[in-house]
Design goal:
Distance between the termini: 90 Å
Radius of gyration: 37 Å
Number of helices: 8
Number of strands: 17
Largest sheet: 9 strands, antiparallel
Strand order of the largest sheet: 9-10-15-17-16-12-13-11-14
Structural class: alpha+beta
Mean pLDDT: 79
Length: about 450
């Protein structure tokens, strides 16, 4: 029974018996092959040597140039090197070289276009944040984009779109559950060759509860990009959940759910009649706020009753409304004397205020400032203000923020309630942050 000459039933390319003549032919073929390969190698090597000499003539001596002549050559003598004819290279070698050169040019084109693609992606992210993803621009996303935050995770561009549409109230569920959705982009930066980080503040109102609580989240989003500089993954970290010691750590879903539920059922505060600000960070024990510049009236005082009377009289005579809170500052001079000042912000930020009739009141202009803020219901005595200021400084410095000046030089605190209010008080400790040492562009 005849068997197939090749295992597996596949015919070999050549099939012959190894006779004495075929062995001679094979030896001859091998010799010719070695000779041809040697000739091609030497020819191609000469071509590469000439090409390298164009860029580094002091490193490579082309074929045919004597060592004594090559020793004194420099860049200006490159034209003296003998040229290697491209026609002397085999067509196969020439095609391989041309293909490799084309690939190198393609890589250079991608690298050159990378900054442009990154800039286009940054502009896309800015547009999407400002419009709350209306529309989402899928051309800048990988179809299998992955999203992860402390409460949820999913994969795919359509699920991504449905999630943002729900929060914005553009789906049936979102229409019944959410309103007042807003997303503020504070900063966007490149953290590596194919990664970006954004800092943001997200808010929405949950309508399914009768009191319609406002939920606010602050944090960062880390974007990982694919080879085409499209978003491959987005990982969100919340300041209130993931931030520990200045680093964003991965936490379980229960931690994110707990933070969300706490916001749903905590007492809601009215901010009507208050000095406006932008919330930059809602951390576990403090907030970071950007207050705009404002005009106001200020008095020095020994007792708060005295300050309230002086400021109240000025605003009454000027017929100007003032804003909460009463901002107080206690500072020590170089000789240890303590001075205290109270400021009431005025409506019409940046507007000129009338000159006061009393010399104890003066008009001031406060520049835009970023503050770390700690809230307490305890009375603002000298002991509590000093204690909470120390605690707040430790927290913000632990998270990598910088408070300028010594700890006991100046204390700033704010009172939102009437002087003799019987309800639960809302008092705050303010620490100004160094403008060059925090990550927000304010």
């Amino acid at each position: 029974m005849a068997t197939h000459p090749c295992p597996g039933g596949i015919s070999p390319l050549y099939s012959f018996r190894p006779t004495q003549t075929s062995r001679k032919h094979r030896i001859l073929h091998v010799c010719l092959g070695v000779a041809l390969f040697s000739a091609l190698f030497l020819t191609f090597r000469g071509k590469n040597s000439a090409r390298l000499a164009t860029t580094a003539p002091h490193l490579t001596r082309p074929r045919g140039v004597a060592p004594s002549r090559f020793k004194g050559l420099r860049g200006g003598d490159v034209h003296k090197f003998p040229k290697v004819s491209v026609s002397s290279v085999s067509p196969r070698r020439r095609n391989q070289y041309m293909a490799r050169s084309a690939a190198d040019e393609a890589v250079q084109t991608v690298n050159t276009g990378a900054p442009d693609k990154l800039e286009e992606l940054k502009q896309c992210i800015t547009r999407e944040y400002n419009s709350f993803f209306d529309p989402l621009e899928p051309a800048f996303y990988n179809k299998e984009v992955e999203f992860i935050d402390p409460m949820t995770s999913f994969q795919g561009i359509e699920k991504y779109r449905k999630n943002v549409d729900m929060l914005a109230g553009r789906t049936l569920l979102g229409l019944f559950a959410f309103t007042d959705a807003d997303l503020k982009l504070h900063n966007i930066s490149q953290t590596s060759e194919r990664s970006l980080r954004t800092r943001w503040t997200l808010q929405f109102r949950f309508k399914l509860l009768p009191w319609k609580p406002l939920c606010i989240f602050t944090g960062v989003s880390d974007y990982t990009l694919d080879e085409q500089y499209k978003v491959l993954s987005q990982k969100d970290y919340w300041d209130s959940v993931n931030l520990e010691g200045g680093e964003y750590l991965k936490k379980g879903t229960l931690e994110g759910l707990k933070d969300f539920l706490n916001q749903l059922f905590q007492p809601q505060q009215s901010h009507v009649g208050e000095l406006s600000y932008t919330l930059l960070r809602r951390a576990k024990g403090y907030e970071v706020r950007a207050y705009p510049g404002f005009s106001g009236a200020q008095v020095e005082y020994n007792s708060r009753n005295q300050a309230w009377e002086g400021l109240g009289k000025y605003f009454s005579e000027a017929k100007i409304e003032f804003l909460k809170p009463s901002i107080m500052e206690a500072s020590k001079s170089s000789n240890g004397e303590l001075s205290k000042r109270m400021t009431w912000p005025a409506i019409g930020q940046g507007a000129s205020l009338p000159m006061p009739s009393s010399s104890s009141v003066k008009v001031i202009n406060v520049p835009p400032t970023v503050y770390a803020v700690l809230t307490t219901s305890e009375p603002l005595t000298e002991v509590t203000v000093s204690m909470y200021s120390t605690d707040l400084r430790k927290q913000v410095e632990r998270d990598g923020l910088v408070v300028p000046g010594p700890q006991d030089k100046s204390l700033i605190f704010a009172q939102f309630d009437e002087l003799y209010s019987l309800s639960e008080r809302r008092n705050e400790i303010w620490l100004p942050l160094s403008s060059s040492e925090h990550p927000w562009p304010f």
